[in-house]
Amino acid sequence: MNPLLLKKYNIAAPRYTSYPTVPYWQKEKPSEQAWIKAAQVAFKESKEISLYIHLPYCENLCTYCGCNKRITKNHKVETPYIQTVLKEWDLYLQKLPDQPIIRELYLGGGTPTFFSPESLNFLLEGIFKGAEIAKKHNFSFEAHPSSTTSAHLVALKSHGFNRISIGVQDFDEKILKAINRKQTYKQVEDVVLEAQKMGFDSLNFDLIFGLPFQTKANIRANMKKLEYLRPDRIAFYSYAHVPWLYPGQRAYSEADLPKGEAKRALYNLGKALLLEMGYEEIGFDHFALPTENLSIAQKNGNLHRNFMGYTPFNTQLNIALGVSAISDSWTAFVQNEKKIEDYKARVNQGELPFFRGHLLNKDDQVLRKHILQLICQFETDWVDEADRCEGLYAAFDRLEELEKDGLIERAPFQIKVTEIGKPFIRNICLALDTYYWAKQPKGQLFSQVV
What we know:
Layout: H1 3-9, H2 32-45, E1 48-55, E2 57-58, E3 70-71, H3 78-95, E4 101-109, H4 117-129, E5 132-143, H5 150-158, E6 163-169, H6 173-178, H7 185-198, E7 202-209, H8 216-229, E8 233-238, H9 260-276, E9 280-282, E10 286-288, H10 293-300, E11 304-306, E12 309-311, E13 317-321, E14 326-328, E15 332-336, H11 340-348, E16 354-359, H12 362-377, E17 379-381, H13 390-394, H14 396-404, E18 408-411, E19 414-417, H15 425-430, H16 434-438
Parallel strand pairs: 1-4, 1-13, 2-3, 4-5, 5-6, 6-7, 7-8
Antiparallel strand pairs: 8-10, 9-10, 11-12, 14-15, 15-16, 17-19, 18-19
């Protein structure tokens, strides 16, 4: 990587899990009526939906983590929380004109395997009472190696789960201790072997580069273990150091973190080793084996990205249940209350528990489409007049600078990201972000691009 480009473009920028990004959503939240109307319109497009369920509890705080979580060892919280989630689901079922077909289901957290197998059975039986399961479905859950048992795997497999995502982060004991991640290599290996034995179709590892004390030697050691375990997918994330949002990240010194060129070198090494092993690069920070459905979707032009990450298909309606979860109808977003107590109170009053949201106008939808195309396919075009808007025209001057630096190539009505530009995909998307340029943040809001 050109160090001059790294110095110029290593700025704070959004990750673009949505557009507009959450800090730029409308100040006034949509009415429940407006959100339900948007959801019903999306549902009429297709009864197949994606469903995300946020399970926020963890027994220990992993200090690197930026997720919404509640730390407790009191497992009596499981049943009341699940009962609330099922009440929220019932509120949606009352509003939808027909029974939904669940094509994608994701249990995230927190630590979903904090919940006992019996609690997960209770949750999923309640969810499926009001819905059908698509024949070609993708059901996945986040597994913590230290708390995922054979009984968890049996329970989830019995409900149609076919994919498991293991939070590895790193294998090194010193790094794991620094981030308070209580797990061992043996625990990871045990979960992998058990999941493979039970016939889970796809296995994902979450790895992070840029963690405290992490070096190239750590990356090489991680990849050696990964070559043996051979997961189907790898999410190789950049550590986002945002201690002003997540104070747990102050548990270690910033001096212990690799930065700039040193941090990017960790990713470049990991990427090179993954490519040597036969993995293919998917979007940014993700890799998959050629036979995995993400690789196939990228080749076919069907790769999509939503709040659950990269996915091989796009459902018009994404309903998210649980504290802090974000739902998406393509034309609207809403996010649930962030505090468990507030979330429960709203649901128990018979209200959909979102506290903020955004109704997308025409420009928002056009720019969202282009940003998704760039993040998924590294190119986009506006040959069709419906794919043009004032925000796109306003971005042309900013795109010119990126073109001069070799990050993109432009043709009439088209942008293509170059190999040099791929590490700076967030900067390229930023050029299209009209909200950011209309009101640039004065304080710390986003993590660094590298």
